Amino acid sequence: MVIANRIGDVELELTTFQQIYLEVSEDEVDETIQEFQAAGLKCYPVGNVVKSLRTCNFCKGELEEGMPVAKEINERTAGKEVPFTVKMAYTGCPVGCGEPLVNDIGIMKIRDKYNLYIGGKSKGKDAEAGTLLFENLEPEALYLYIDRFLAKYQELGRKREGVAKFIKRIGFDEIKQSIK
């Protein structure tokens, strides 16, 4: 309802990353954010930041155990400034409906452990699947490696250099060793 009250003549966009973009005037930004947050909605900046975590919710058998981890990852990462927009995806089973292999950072839950992928790219003639960085992780280790990878990207990534290009320039093995 809070979104409907704000729309009026405003342009609204629903993205593939389960985000809503609203165009509001500069003098209404703070008030709009406060209203949305009071209704339980998260507000993140646009631009070169980590996007909110995209998930799937079709695996009803995996939903209960996996979603708390997905929510924690989102809380820790969404809105962080990075050299170029980072898209993350999470899926609760190996079917991969959340498309973790074609995003900059992908998380796949397999039973009670997590696999972490980096460098997926879904668009362009050089599209490719992400590479398995670490497997069979407990949640705390998963959080740690995601945090370390993002810190390395913040430190060494060039402005407007996507994650896949960053990994190719630095080297997958070098990145893996530096965040281990």
Any overview of this molecule?
- It is a single chain.
- It is built from six helices and seven strands; from the N terminus they run αββαβαββββααα.
- The strands form two sheets. The protein has a five-stranded mixed beta sheet. Strands 1-2 form a two-stranded antiparallel ribbon.
- Helix 3 packs parallel to helix 4.
- It has 180 residues and is an alpha/beta fold.
- The mean pLDDT is 88.
- It folds into two domains: 37 residues, no CATH class; 126 residues, 2-Layer Sandwich (Sulfite Reductase Hemoprotein, domain 1), CATH 3.30.413.10.
- This is Nitrite reductase.
- InterPro entries: NO2/SO3_Rdtase_4Fe4S_dom, NO2/SO3_Rdtase_4Fe4S_prot, NO2/SO3_Rdtase_4Fe4S_sf, NO2/SO3_Rdtase_FeS/sirohaem_BS.
- It comes from Rossellomorea vietnamensis.
- GO terms for molecular function: 4 iron, 4 sulfur cluster binding; heme binding; metal ion binding; sulfite reductase (ferredoxin) activity; sulfite reductase activity.
